[in-house]
Amino acid sequence: MDEQFLSPLEVAEILQVKKNTVYEMIKRGDLKATKMGKQFRIARKDVYEYMGVMPETESPENIVICGQDQLLDVLCALYNSQSDGHTQVYRSPMGSYSGLYRMYQNENYVATCHMWDGATDTYNLPYIERMLPGEQVAVFHLLKRWQGFYVKEGNPKNIQKFEDLLREDVRMINREKGSGIRIFIDEMCKKLDIDPDRIHGYEDIASSHLIAATNVLRGTAAVAIGNEKSARQMEGIQFLPLKQESYDIVFRKKDLKRKEFQKLLNIIGSGEFQKEAEMMSGYDISDMGKQLY
């Protein structure tokens, strides 16, 4: 696999810390970095080595969980601390759509997703049924979290509703295709019969919540859409809630007959895992572990 390099801001998004913290980690020598011109770049493999996980693995005995939420690192760490040495769990940092696609193509993969279907006003199940055709699956709830507008503190453009994105004085920054936020934006456009070409900045892409928030803070965009948790990490950003999303995990039904996957599910339902989740602000874990499908 070709080496991939990340900016300090992208690393901050993965680690769920502030960008300045990443620079401090580089300065202390805790995180390897390479100077490319005037900018630091960090190899993705070094980020995952620091975290104690790897983004992908070739071993047929290991399990890969697809998803971007930091809580999945906790899940992997708890599993691996109890491992018998034969099976390890790793996280692959890909978005909802790509995760389901990868799960369909590969054994021993588990997907997490937060994709809103505007026609039914539900999360995930319509996409799971379409993207995993013929697969018998079991879907379990992990958590709920708010998504909404990122604006500068004080909301100088007075953005209140989705239709405000059509205003001439408002420029947004979008997210990449396949991400849960991009799917929400496109579904809202469809539901409200909005032509995306009328939205200033629709073609401008940020690859993470924190990068989107940074663009708003710098003034290159007036608004972005992302989750509440990331907004709290960026001083000067105000969060305006739009919709509470459901973040769920998908297993193949046949895999749950195997002790390795049953152990993973047991950890999700454990008090230890839920206690770790409670310590992370911005989550509603009241139905964590509930089977949805």
Automatic annotation (TrEMBL):
<protein>
    <submittedName>
        <fullName>DNA binding domain, excisionase family</fullName>
    </submittedName>
</protein>
<feature type="domain" description="Helix-turn-helix">
    <location>
        <begin position="6"/>
        <end position="51"/>
    </location>
</feature>
<dbReference type="GO" id="GO:0003677">
    <property type="term" value="F:DNA binding"/>
</dbReference>
<dbReference type="Pfam" id="PF12727">
    <property type="entry name" value="PBP_like"/>
</dbReference>
<feature type="domain" description="PBP">
    <location>
        <begin position="85"/>
        <end position="268"/>
    </location>
</feature>
<dbReference type="InterPro" id="IPR024370">
    <property type="entry name" value="PBP_domain"/>
</dbReference>
<dbReference type="InterPro" id="IPR010093">
    <property type="entry name" value="SinI_DNA-bd"/>
</dbReference>
<dbReference type="Pfam" id="PF12728">
    <property type="entry name" value="HTH_17"/>
</dbReference>
<dbReference type="InterPro" id="IPR041657">
    <property type="entry name" value="HTH_17"/>
</dbReference>
